[in-house]
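Example (one chain per record):
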Amino acid sequence: MRRYGKHTDEDDVRVRPNRKGSRPRTHTRPKHEDAAQGMVLTVDRGRLTCLVDDRTVTAMKARELGRKGVVVGDRVALVGDLSGEKDTLARIVRVEKRTSVLRRTADDNDPYERVVVANADQLAIVTALADPEPRPRLIDRCLVAAYDAGLDPLLVLTKSDLASARPLLEQYTPLGVRHVVTSRTELADGAAAERVRESLNGRITVLVGHSGVGKTTLVNALVPEEHRRTTGHVNAVTGRGRHTTTSALALPMPEEGSWVIDTPGVRSFGLHHVDPSRVIGAFPDLEPGTAGCPRACSHDEPDCALDQWVSDGHADPQRLYSLRRLLRTREEHEGD
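Predicted structure:
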């Protein structure tokens, strides 16, 4: 093998041709200052449908984004073919700073976070009062995720023609969660949709609920031109519905600035990513009482100062009970 010494002549140095061209590599990336702004409406197998001005554009992530995820609700910058015509493809070159992120994990032992949506400001927890039976523990977990993400929760109760909403509402009145009650008949004639729409006006609302609760039926009533396929079939043995929504989809409502984001039905809502100390922020009447708590207090232990705070009349005991019920969801399995 030939060796080169310290004073090698240039002609002796073997240079391999660059098959990709002679331009030197650089770490400088284009700033794309002229990129168009858009919003991600849905993601399907690496293709993203984005709203740019008044048209939908199919796009893919640019290589410079690396592993950075892009989800429904993201505000993005796009370049390339933005005509929206068939068989055209744009590139997403930048994801703008998010105002909120709704996350979940598969279960409480799974450290991998899944971002559900970005930039929403309200979480509507859709729950049937019967067929299938309501699952309060899943509702509690969704509430914890909403408080952690900084979203305002809204409880949407469906199928009130099959069961009364009173028992379930009694559990959530101390939490101060807003609610809307609907029935199948009211959704069919549009009366219930109008009540729900009033709670969504001017908001970006993500709908979450397990399969069979009537979530997609609600979306079809709110956005009639969409007509997503509904299920109506609930397994008599498991009490669970069949998935009809397979990917999250953002839909504009007729009202200015109003969006509804439909998501696939969930059977679990893991909270591995949630720091329990952040849940107290959703209880402004209790938060001042934590000043006397011992260091790293879980707010659910014998020395917690909140017991004295409530005893002194600063807050309703039911509010403390509700806080601790939510905190325990972080340590318990969901079940039914």
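Caption: The chain has a mean pLDDT of 85.
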